[in-house]
Design goal:
By secondary structure, the protein is of the alpha/beta class. About 20% of the residues lie in helices and about 15% in strands. The protein contains two helices and four strands. Helix 1 packs parallel to helix 2. The radius of gyration is 12 Å and the shape is globular.
Length: about 90
């Protein structure tokens, strides 16, 4: 059984297909939810950092989510990531 995709149907597929065309890099997945997108990006060879206001919901093996509140300053240095995936998150800010 795979991880639940909390985004609307087909969104993860579109995002994953977009990342297939990009050089491998460091990706912030925020909010990560249970980790379906984080896992897919990691499996593609990206270095994934997962963040969520509820990091305890992370279910992807080998990926630890850290607390991130999108309504406050994030706990990362400027230019820390090559890419940011924000699927179904902007509407919560």
């Amino acid at each position: 059984m795979g991880l639940a995709e909390l985004a609307n149907k087909g969104i993860h597929t579109k995002v994953i297909n977009h990342f297939r065309n990009l050089p491998k890099g460091k990706v912030l997945d925020l909010p990560c939810g249970p980790g379906a997108l984080s896992k897919a990006l990691k499996d593609m060879g990206h270095d994934v950092i997962a963040g969520d206001i509820h990091p305890e919901h992370m279910q992807a093996q080998g990926i630890q989510a850290q607390f991130c509140d999108m309504n406050t300053k994030l706990p990362f240095k400027d230019k820390a990531f090559d890419y940011i995936a924000c699927v179904e998150g902007i509407e919560h800010t």
